[in-house]
Amino acid sequence: MKIDSSLPPLDMVNVPQRRLVEQEQHRELIQAAKAVLASDFNERGRELTFAFHQHAGRMVIRILDRKTQEVVTQIPAEDLLRMAEQLKLSAARSV
User: Fold this and answer.
1) pLDDT, tens digit, for every residue of 53-88?
2) pTM
3) For the chain, domain boundaries
4) How many other C-beta atoms are found inside a 10 Å radius of the C-beta of residue 46?
């Protein structure tokens, strides 16, 4: 895994830049995890996917059956994503 020491500490960066830095760090972490897990998942006929759930504001990790594309496991679970989305909406309304 590549660790880039040229990235500034997050507390030293303004908010838009911080989001870009965080996105880049997430991207690198995801690529590293995919590389490590790829061989095991391929042997079992599974696929590892990562996505950002916009409404809940959370990263979602899914393990899919490669043949059927059915979700075998999802983290966080769908009901937790709905709860996070509702909390985010409630917080936005109260501001």
Assistant:
1) 887 777 888 888 989 999 988 888 888 888 888 888
2) 0.52
3) 1-43, 45-95
4) 16
